[in-house]
Amino acid sequence: MPEEDPRGQMLRLLKREIDHHEDVAWLRWVNVRSPVGSLRALAFYCVPAGAADVEQLTPEEQARRLACAVGHVGSCAEYLYNTVSHLEALGIRDRYLWDMQARVAAEIDRL
Length: 111
Fold this sequence. Notes:
It is a single chain. By secondary structure, the protein is of the alpha+beta class. It has two domains: 1-46, no CATH class; 48-111, no CATH class. Helix content is 47%, strand content 18%. A two-stranded antiparallel sheet has the order 1-2. Strands 3-4 form a two-stranded antiparallel ribbon.
């Protein structure tokens, strides 16, 4: 997050990512490793209601779903690409996300 106006930046982020009061349950503070040591980070995640089996999807099925999924602010494929690109620009390389990005891109090409 930009250093200027951290409270305002956080509020804009939360307003963008949380549509309903019920969505607050999908936020978690997690411990992360960084070049400057351990930090706390706010993580957003989503599991459709009543879809416990989503956690058991193979990477191939995850990629198929992400390649076609669209939410109220755009496509999941674009969201994933923007996420990995911005993390990379910050010097953060997440192997899982980059692998998923490659799988989603291949699935879109296939479609």
